[in-house]
Design a protein that fits this description.
The structure holds two protein chains of two kinds.
Chain A lengths: L1 H6 L5 H44 L2 E4 L3 E4 L3 H6 L3 H34 L3 H15 L2 H11 L7 H7 L13 H26 L4 H8 L4 H12 L1 H16 L3 H6 L13 H11 L3 H25 L8
Chain B lengths: L7 H22 L15 E5 L5 H11 L4 E5 L5 H13 L6 E5 L3 H5 L21 H6 L1 E2 L2 E2 L2 E4 L3 E6 H6 L8 H13 L6 E2 L5 H10 L5 E3 L6 E4 L4 H15 L3 E2 L6 H9 L4 E5 L2 H7 L11 E5 L16 E5 L6 H10 L4 H9 L8 H4 L2 H4 L11 H12 L9 H16 L5 H18 L3 E2 L1
Parallel strand pairs in B: 1-2, 1-3, 8-11, 10-15
Antiparallel strand pairs in B: 3-14, 4-5, 6-14, 7-12, 7-13, 9-10
Helix pairs in contact in B: 8-9, 9-18, 17-18
The chains are: A mainly alpha, B alpha/beta.
């Protein structure tokens, strides 16, 4: 580079500055052009709807009396609304149970698949990942039938031992019914992420550990898990956000058990019901934002407590 | 639970409906995507949403016979799905069809939002004599008429003859007898006697009305004030009665209209099914009465509280309404009056038990009255049960927030079935919940 510039020496300082300015401007323009398509879509389909929903959430529409500006009244109502609060409490409880279960299953499978190398591994990996490839709606419908006491397998299995099959769609057991569906669907996906992280670990570390006398279990516990901690935290955040926005599975199972799964079962379902069932778009928007607030608080708290471990944010 | 979804999903849906409104305008009023084929291309076209299973035939019959207007029909979903779409179109101010099928209990809900047109000025007098007074009352708010009655839902008790024979019981005439019979079957180790589905609150409402409850009083001249009586003694009694049946293990708590429930009906898990006149058609469509259970069903009048003063009630029933988004209400009203009113369509409707006709030409037709219903093993169900029930029906005042009321009721029935509250508590909570909603919506609750 230096030799090239020396050969082109005769240019004045002024000219140099001009060209540099032009290049920079052109570079800027090119940059904006590259960002442009994304930016337009981002603004049109994320920022604008969000702003519009925020705007809507500041109004109240009554059947009698019409629309009026109420500022944050809808939010005050949401945070004192038993439907919203019980829904939010449900998804938080669900997250506290479902996330550790999913991650534990995913981690165990990833460690096994990483440690064992045989022809069977690739096949297993695919099979474990498969539920994620099945659309949520189809997965939920399928489980709805599997849970059925008339034509599901549960009656036969429990009948074999002389017991009555549990009804996973009843209000006592719906928590576990959903827990099972969610774990089935997502554990494979998390497993793939963890597996990829495990594959990225330098194998010489294992060799060194073995030389120091570490067994397989110790390698897994003291080397593998600490090294994939960032990936673990990443999927924890994913699943936390996803679980707090729980919607698809309960909404589908509602067709089978409307009594158990009310229209306000989770905050997202409640927002949907308010907006599209009761035409209360204003309150529906407020609930969405209130839920956004809950998600933000939960994720922030989580990241705060794990701040030493993370490297991706 | 898609991780890629951000917290904006619902917000986006909300806003997207604003965007989608521009395009769903086409869905609503563009005649190019009809399910039926319009042959008379040069006539004006009105769009329509409806979900009767034989709607294709009904629309074709209408279009063939009519030289003024043609109907472009689509089925956008059954019941709640269609109402959600209609409700969204109302909020968006665009996207609704010209003519829409609605159940009668929803009419005030849409009427109060000025979403329906009073069609009494568009040729009502010509057809008034074709329907009974109860039918007109159900589609009216005050003197204004917001729909043309099509289908009624007189309630009756469908029962399994094989189970009744086996346990030597006769159809109960009163609710007390109903419980005794249920106990007898249970004591003999028989199946459940009936079912209390939390997802069919409209049925519970009808049963409460049968005992004398009047859930809503509402004068359209004063739309801002409404009477809400959901926890009067009659309402409590009926909830207590059903809660008691559940507690004693006499009836199930399965949601109805689900594969689970239907398979239960086929398997003979329920001795009775309290349902409306359209139920046999629905059950047949769902595959009931075609296998081992062929000819096992019969129907008897709805059990009464006081056999000396029988009260007949309705579940469901539907009508054709004209929406206020229609730019051609007069033509739309013509379609609403004419559709499903011709003999061929009506006959197809009642022979296949798709509708219980409210049109008097069908209701008084001896062939209809004397029909030996195949589902009921040749029983003359119309003559014996449904027609007398329909004739005795007096009509009901429905609420202008039907969706909320039914959702709230579903919640309470579900809790009652789970045993966490009693029927009286359910009624009290329902009253509180609905009153609060009504107040929030700007009503003065009396």
């Amino acid at each position: 580079m230096t030799s090239l510039t020396e050969k082109r020496a005769p240019r004045t300082q002024d000219e140099k500055r001009k060209t540099r300015g032009k290049t920079r401007r052109r570079e800027h323009l090119t940059g904006w052009l590259f960002v442009g398509p994304f930016g337009v879509v981002f603004l049109a389909f994320l920022i604008a709807p969000l702003a519009y929903a925020l705007y809507l959430s500041l109004f109240q529409k009554k059947l009698i009396g019409g629309t009026s500006f109420v500022l944050f009244d809808n939010y005050v109502k949401a945070f004192t609304d038993p439907s919203f609060l019980s829904g939010a409490w449900f998804v938080i409880r669900f997250a506290l149970v479902a996330i550790p279960v999913q991650i534990a299953v995913a981690l165990a499978m990833a460690l096994i698949l990483d440690a064992v190398t045989s022809l069977f591994t690739r096949f297993s990996r695919l099979m474990i990942f498969l539920p994620y490839a099945i659309p949520t709606v189809i997965g939920a419908v399928m489980w709805g039938f599997l849970y059925s006491r008339s034509f599901g397998p549960l009656t036969d299995v429990f009948g074999f031992f002389g017991a009555t099959a549990p009804d996973f769609l009843s209000s006592n057991l719906i928590f576990y019914g959903l827990l099972n569906i969610v774990t089935w669907q997502w554990a494979g996906y998390y497993m793939i992420i963890l597996y990829a992280a495990l594959q990225g670990i330098d194998p010489t570390l294992y060799e060194a550990a073995r030389m120091d006398g570490a067994g397989r279990w110790q390698v897994a516990r003291r080397i593998k898990i600490p090294l994939i901690a960032p990936a673990l935290i990443l999927i924890l955040v994913f699943s936390l956000i996803g679980t707090l926005q729980f919607f698809n599975e309960p909404q589908i199972l509602r067709y089978l058990a409307a009594g158990t799964i009310g229209s306000d079962f989770t905050p997202n379902m409640y927002a949907y019901q308010q907006a599209f069932g009761l035409a209360n778009f204003n309150y529906g928007s407020a609930i969405s934002f209130a839920l956004g607030g809950v998600v933000f608080v939960c994720v922030y708290a989580f990241l705060f407590f794990t701040r030493k471990r993370r490297s991706f944010l | 639970m898609k991780t890629t979804r951000t917290l904006a999903t619902v917000a986006m849906l909300v806003a997207a409906s604003g965007l989608a409104a521009c395009s769903s305008d086409e869905g609503g009023s563009d005649a190019s995507n009809c399910t039926n084929t319009i042959t008379k291309q040069d006539l004006p076209v009105v769009t329509m949403w409806a979900w009767y299973p034989n709607m294709q035939l009904v629309v074709d019959n209408f279009n063939k016979a009519n030289d003024e207007v043609q109907v472009c029909w689509t089925n956008v979903g059954q019941g709640g799905d269609q109402y959600d779409k209609f409700q969204t179109a109302i909020s968006a101010g665009t996207g609704a069809p010209d003519v829409i099928m609605v159940e009668m209990d929803r009419i005030p809900t849409f009427q109060i939002q000025n979403a329906l047109v009073d069609i009494s000025g568009y040729g009502l007098d010509a057809v008034r004599a074709n329907y009974g007074d109860g039918a007109w009352k159900d589609v009216s708010v005050g003197d204004a008429v917001y729909g043309v009655p099509v289908d009624g839902g007189p309630l009756a008790m469908i029962y399994r003859k094989d189970i009744f024979d086996k346990y030597e019981i006769t159809p109960p005439k009163t609710w007390a007898e109903y419980e005794q019979a249920a106990q007898k079957v249970k004591d003999a180790g028989g199946p459940l006697f009936g079912d209390l589905g939390a997802n069919v609150p409209a049925l519970m409402m009808a049963l409460q009305i049968q005992k004398g409850a009047a859930p809503f009083t509402y004068d359209p001249a004063q739309p801002e004030s409404i009477g809400v009586r959901l926890n009067d003694q009659a309402s409590k009694d009926v909830l207590e009665y059903w809660g008691g049946l559940v507690r004693k293990g006499l009836v199930g708590t399965q949601d109805q209209f689900t594969p689970e429930y239907i398979s239960g009906v086929i398997n003979g898990n329920y001795a009775t099914y309290i349902s409306a006149a359209w139920a046999p058609g629905y059950l047949t469509g769902a595959g009931v009465g075609q296998g081992d259970d062929t000819g096992t069903f019969a129907v008897a009048p709805l059990p009464q509280w006081d056999p000396n003063n029988p009260v007949q009630v309705n579940w469901g029933g539907s009508a054709f309404s004209v929406t206020s988004q229609s730019k051609q209400p007069e033509l739309a009203a013509k379609a609403a009056y004419g559709l499903y009113a011709d003999e061929e369509s009506l006959t197809d409707g009642w022979t296949n038990q798709i509708i219980f006709p409210l049109n008097l030409t069908a209701l008084n037709n001896p062939e209809f009255v004397d029909l030996k219903v195949a589902f009921f093993d040749g029983q003359q169900a119309n003559k014996e049960v449904y027609v007398p029930a329909a004739n005795a029906y007096q009509g009901v005042v429905y609420s202008p927030f039907g969706q909320y009321y039914f959702d709230a009721m579903t919640k309470q029935i579900s809790e009652m079935s789970a045993g966490s509250i009693t029927g009286s508590q359910a009624a009290d909570r329902l009253q509180e919940d609905v009153t609060k909603h009504a107040t929030e919506q700007g009503f003065t609750v009396q």
